[in-house]
Specification:
single chain, about 130 residues, five-stranded mixed beta sheet, 5 strands, about 40% helix, about 30% strand
């Protein structure tokens, strides 16, 4: 599954675009590239655009392990927001599972089915 990452200057967010079948290793690798070098703004919003990706091949165990394996990055992630944008109801369910599993993560994570709703949420100030 290819993942391309870019910084959207106009929106001031980092966008990961995923295509094909998702694998936990590739998602973790993208997280490590973003958060592992300490060279990012920890408050910046991140959009994982998974509309052209498929997550239904992942199990609950895969999602849980992905969250657990990302724990070493939590200290550098910051407290910004992360939106997961999905293209199907089944993938939205997987996104919601990841959202729930990552509740202890310092970043606030939420799954969406609509691009405009994801952007609105990313731009809102975080409470608490």
């Amino acid at each position: 599954m290819p993942i391309t990452t870019r910084f959207d200057e106009e929106l001031r967010i980092i966008v990961h675009v995923l295509t094909g079948e998702l694998t936990p290793d590739e998602v973790l690798e993208s997280q490590q590239e973003l958060y592992g070098n300490g060279d990012h703004d920890p408050a910046i919003a991140v959009l994982w655009d998974c509309r052209d990706a498929k997550a239904t091949n992942l199990s609950f165990t895969d999602m849980s392990e992905l969250v657990q394996r990302s724990k070493p990055l939590w200290s550098t992630m910051g407290t910004g927001r992360t939106a997961i944008l999905t293209g199907s109801i089944a993938d939205y369910g997987m996104g919601r599972m990841y959202e729930l599993l990552s509740e202890q993560m310092p970043r606030e994570v939420r799954a969406f089915q609509r691009y405009d709703e994801a952007l609105t949420w990313l731009k809102e100030p975080r409470l608490g």
